[in-house]
Amino acid sequence: MEKHQWSEFKLRVNIKTDTDAVYQLWATRKGLESWFLRNAVFKDQDGNVRAPDSAIEEGDTYEWYWHGYPDSVVEKGKVLKADGRIFSFTFSMGCPVTIQIYTESNETIVELIESDLPTDETTRLKHFVGDSKGWIFYLVNLKSILEGGLDLRNKKMELSDVITA
């Protein structure tokens, strides 16, 4: 019997749109805020804040804030790659997340791989289970936004413990 690989997970979603449209929603502040974040702040390597429509570049740093959470809940990291097809960044505990966008069977595929996850019992639940659960929701929301325009996120601070935040 094969053991489960706890150090990474891969999620894929098909979206009926072109690859460039998907990439723009990953690789700009405005794009990320349309389906994923309440506020995304990106700074270039000189510390200058990028404009909302400005392309995020390799080496940029970020601060991310979610709907349904106070500003004290912030994720900070660094963009590892941003080349028009692949978008990669550090995420919780510095683990890399790589987004690949490509065509398969005439549909756009968004593939997310979070890797180098800690495998000890305490943190694997938080990172493997917790992160994958969150990414599943946000990938479904990305699909919903691009295919129909419906934003599924909870934007009310007074609602907590819901899967939409």
Keywords:
alpha+beta, 3 helices, 165 residues, 7-stranded antiparallel beta sheet, Alpha-D-Glucose-1,6-Bisphosphate, Chain A, domain 4, 7 strands
Write the layout of secondary structure elements.
Blueprint: E1 9-15, H1 19-26, H2 29-35, E2 39-43, E3 61-65, E4 75-82, E5 86-90, E6 96-104, E7 107-114, H3 121-148
Antiparallel strand pairs: 1-7, 2-3, 3-4, 4-5, 5-6, 6-7
Tell me what the structure shows.
Helix content is 26%, strand content 28%. It is of the alpha+beta class. It has a single domain (9-148), classed as 2-Layer Sandwich (Alpha-D-Glucose-1,6-Bisphosphate, Chain A, domain 4). It has a 7-stranded antiparallel β-sheet with strand order 1-7-6-5-4-3-2. The protein is globular, with a radius of gyration of 16 Å.
Instruction: Write down the secondary-structure element order.
Output: EHHEEEEEEH
Low-confidence stretches: none
| Number of DSSP helical runs | 3
Radius of gyration: 16 Å
Distance between the termini: 36 Å
Q: What does the overall shape look like?
A: globular
CATH topology: Alpha-D-Glucose-1,6-Bisphosphate, Chain A, domain 4
Tell me about the largest β-sheet: 7 strands, antiparallel
* Strand line-up in the sheet with most strands: 1-7-6-5-4-3-2
Give helix % range: 25-40%
Level-1 CATH class name? Alpha Beta
CATH architecture: 2-Layer Sandwich
Strand % is: 25-35%
The average pLDDT score comes to: 93
The total number of structural domains is 1
